[in-house]
Amino acid sequence: MNFLLPVLLVFPLVGALVMYPLRGTPDVAKKVAIGTALLQIVLAAVTWFAYSVPAAEAGTRFQLEFVLEWIPAFGTRFALGIDGIALVMIALTAFLVPGLMLFSWEERLPEGRTASGYFALLLATEATLMGVFTATDVFLFYVFFEAMLIPMYFLIGRFGGPRRQYAAVKFFLYSLFGGLIMLASLIGLYVASAQYLPAGGTFDWATLRTIVPLIPESTQIWLFLGFFIAFAIKAPLVPLHTWLPDAGAEAPIGAGVLLVGVLDKVGTFGFLRYCLPLFPLASQRLAPLVLVLSVIGILYGALLAVGQKDMSRFVAYTSIAHFGFIALGIFAFSTQAFAGSVLYMVNHGLSTGMLFVMVGLLAARGGSRMINDYGGVAKLAPVLAGCFLLAGLSSLALPGTNSFVSEFLVLVGSFPREPVFTVLATIGIIFAALYVLWVYQQTMQGPVRGKAVLDALGRSNRSGPDASTPHSARGGRPAPDQAGGPGAMIDPAIAARRAGSGFPDLSVREITVLVPLIIAILVLGFFPGPVLDVVNPSVAATMTEVGLTDPVGGLPR
Amino acid sequence: MSELPEVGAATGTASLAWLLFALPALGAAVLLLAGRRANRWGHWLGVATVAAAFVVGLLIFFDTLALDPAQRTRELSLFQWFSVGGLDVDFGLRLDPLSLTFVLLITGVGTLIHLYSVGYMSHDPGRRRFFGQLNLFVTAMLLLVLGNNFVMLYLGWEGVGLASYLLIGFYQDRPSAATAAKKAFLMNRVGDVGLAIAIFLLWRDLGTLQYTEVFERVGDLSGGVLLAITLMLLLGACGKSGQFPLQAWLPDAMEGPTPVSALIHAATMVTAGVYLIARTHPIYDLSTAGRLVVAIIGTVTLLIGAIIGCAYDDIKKVLAYSTVSQIGYMFLAVGLGPAGYALGIFHLLTHGFFKAGLFLGAGSVMHAMNDDVDMRRFGGLARYMPITFATFGLGYLALIGFPFLSGYFSKDAIIEAAFAQEGWQGWVFGGAATLAAGLTAFYMTRLVLMTFFGERRWEKLTSAPTPENPAGHDYHPHESPATMTVPMIVLAFGSVGAGAVLSGIGLTEWLAPSLGELTEVEGGVLPHAVIPWLVVALSALGVLIAWLTVGRHRVPVEKPALVSLPVRAARRDLYANAINEALIARPGTWLTRALVYFDNRGVDGLVNGMAAGLGGSSGRMRRLQTGFVRSYALSMLGGSVLVIGALLAVVYA
């Protein structure tokens, strides 16, 4: 019995509860919260080192197991354990949370909301995520899967943007709908297991694996569909995606990062942990369907991203395209594609997390999420623009950034079995370049323009100390055409920047938020080895569970 | 098919090869991260790192030269990049004559252009950023040519694409620069899809992506797959090298600072497509059809570039289309197979010298002329900038193939090899290449006449108004500072001598371990001895026509609007942009808008409609609960009657 995982699960929950007595002192609450999150990183690191990478396809799948009897009548136990895939997801979650807390440090919260409440909900979400990734009992997984909704619902509904109520309810209903279908499948699975097991039904993942070969394909298909729909809503695959743009746009940035970066990955994690190993025949039979949805998602999500006017919705649609890649990799059934998908889950959390943060930083300055309200920001805030570009490059999977390795593995691994779908998905990389560079051009390049930017400069010109600039003397806003021209050194915008007002570049706190993300993006771009080493054995085990071998290795000679 | 070389491990001096890309990478990192602190000395760091890389390159070159030709192919594995279930991707370098040739070109010309930029960018507030990005480019380009597998190639391939994107958009508050940068990246990505698919095919059928193993096993590929791979590689090459049908980005890329045009968009990056085909020659060796397509693309492009080059008045765009055309020659050469691989690389090297020199000369002219690029506003500049004129003139003579200058050796060799093909191929390839040589002579003579000779049209003009200076500046042409002229002089020596020297010291034998022995050209559709005379005669004709039409007349400052159809077509890039716009950009915009509407109203509308329907129906159902006992009693009666009726029906049925 190893107590590491229960501690990992309970610790953030305790942190969340401690927020309640601290609600009157937000400064203390924030420090305690971020301290909890930082300690959680330490715990995750301990877990990482406690986990010993198994030799490929050796013995049991789960390590650091912790089991308590829970409801013996249902054959369900409070059982925790991790494989390599769960481990990297835990590490990703723990890695992201402190950064987004620091990001939210000075967040303007809606009327009547406290920072302690916000941070408590973030920690509670983290705790439920730990539960989802560590559960090895299917029923326990279901409980965490549903519990995850509650803190996220309040994060969106209480702390979100203007349409937060609508977005939160939509998010909740969509997810609950999927969850209930999964519950039906879960009961079905229990009944099926009771048929084949002399000791009665069970929810234990490892035991269920042993009876998989006995379940007929037709039953598998029904059970598969229940799980699949729940996960396809969570990870959103087109056409079950429309909750994500609303939720992603209205969620406060910190919660949005957690939502898109980690919480949605529970869907793709579920494909790998539950759909494929428990229903291998159904997975193979229905793979074409999933592949069609994936490729549609890649192309459709990318084109929609191009057409968005709201930056948060833009990020949400890029994620829909990325989830298409992950699902493609999972349902192409090859070692490279599986590993690529798992790595993609991590990398997408980092790159989209950073992109979300950049949107938040921009919105914090201009007070708007609209792309059209910004323009020429690179001239005012070059470091911010550079970070935005880096996040975008990671999102379009430029080699040298983390996402390249995962996207390449997904595509190269999918191609031997699914050449047509892979070629279509590869065309998606052109669209990815298009949406990233188009948004970058609109917001960052060109002359200084856009309502949000000019308003910010105008405010500082009226009240700021930089009365020496020629435009403030005239009392008006600088017209966009006056700000143009290469090397125009008398630009009022630059004067405003020098005076430290108007549209300021990144602060030390903001850079502190970004630096770990940037380092992770670049290091994983060149040295993904440590993550892949942990993932590879679990991926090989998944291949065995599906019962397929790699289609690669040369044509028959 | 040529023999594959033995591959050894790099030891001794060659094990320092990682410094080649690490030095400029360090420079880029320092320059981009150090902030304003590095403004004073940053540009010299940029120059120093590339110069140091050049020295390392020279050391490794001489080290390799000392070896027996059979042992000149060596590899250096640095670390394992990633590895999943049999797919092992090495972060490794391949040091062989081909890659070392490129290393010397990139770092050598790169050093000169870095030095030139110190002067050229001296007044630009973004100079540090400029050098950082230029160093980034050198790093990526070196990774591209040094990689020992296809994933490393792809890393460098997209890396140079990023550097090119950043540098084209360097003047980032110019909307036109931002648009050109985005266009370049996107059209390159279209090519990258081709390269990626070629890699997928190699992995599927050969189970490896290391050059050595791929080249050993290509014999196992079926004809169809082989052709598919060659075509997909070609698509990648076309994107990077501005070849038909992906040529439209390269002229727009002239929005970048002129040193960028010289280094990236003339001498090195745009020749990466030629490198790709030469590097993968064991694959092309096996596919006659694939090679033929390469030669056809090259021929089409060399004509397109030469025709459009005749019509532009923008000095940089003429040079850009000249580059498109000259790379077309290189594609034609490598498309000829074992008779042409080395010739393509030969022309690539001489072109690297004289075209870089020409661009630097153009930059020097722009420097003197308030950054104007319109040749109609120039004229008579030879007197004011003698060094620029002399170096530019030598580059010009080299480009048009003046006997015994660089271009004469390399271009004529390609034309001879093209005529040596049998049947229609000989006539078409050779004829087109000769015709384009005449056109090249025409447009380059026109450029030189309009810029350096004739009336000083700028005397009566002022440059376009800027925010600082609404009236516009007068022109005060002057010679450029030494940091700019010295690189131009060095490159001018290259323009003159590179052809003779490289063919004298045996470039083709040096490259043989990488590219196979160069097959001697013989036979073909024209006698061998006639061809040089024919090419020189046609070039002279081009010069003469340029003199008759441009040199003898006054050049109007406004370009004439009423011109013949071919000129109009050439001014509009032979409608390449219009076609892209009509077939891709506009339908894409509409599709995007339609999809956004569909997603909001269709998919999400369905969901919200269901929710609204549910809410509405429950609202109506609620109204049934009126609270009146009499209506409940009535409905109970109705229900009872129905139930009894149903039971009776079942019993008596």
Give a structural overview.
The complex is a heterodimer of chains A (557) and B (653). With 557 residues, chain A is an all-alpha fold. Chain A contains 24 helices and 2 strands. Chain A folds into 2 domains: 489 residues, no CATH class; 35 residues, no CATH class. In chain A, strand 1 and strand 2 form a beta hairpin. In chain A, helix 5 runs antiparallel to helix 7. Chain B folds into 2 domains: 564 residues, no CATH class; 29 residues. In chain B, strands 1-2-3 form a 3-stranded mixed β-sheet. Chain B is globular, with a radius of gyration of 31 Å. Chain B is mainly alpha-helical. Classes of the chains: A mainly alpha (557), B mainly alpha (653). The interface between A and B is large, with 75 and 66 residues.
List how many beta strands of chain A DSSP finds: 2
State the end-to-end CA separation of chain A. 51 Å
Helix content range of chain A: over 70%
- What percent strand of chain B? under 5%
Shape of chain B: globular
Distance between the termini of chain B: 89 Å
Number of domains of chain B: 2
Which value, in Å, is the CA radius of gyration of chain B? Answer: 31 Å
- What shape does the CA trace of chain A take? globular
Task: Enumerate the spans of chain A where pLDDT stays under 50 for 5 or more consecutive residues.
Answer: 463-492, 494-498
- Major sheet size, sense and barrel closure of chain B: 3 strands, mixed
Count of helical stretches of chain A: 24
Q: List how many beta strands of chain B DSSP finds.
A: 3
Strand residue content of chain A: under 5%
The most extensive contact between chains is: A-B, 75 and 66 residues
Structural category of chain B is mainly alpha
Q: Mean pLDDT of chain B, as a whole number?
A: 89
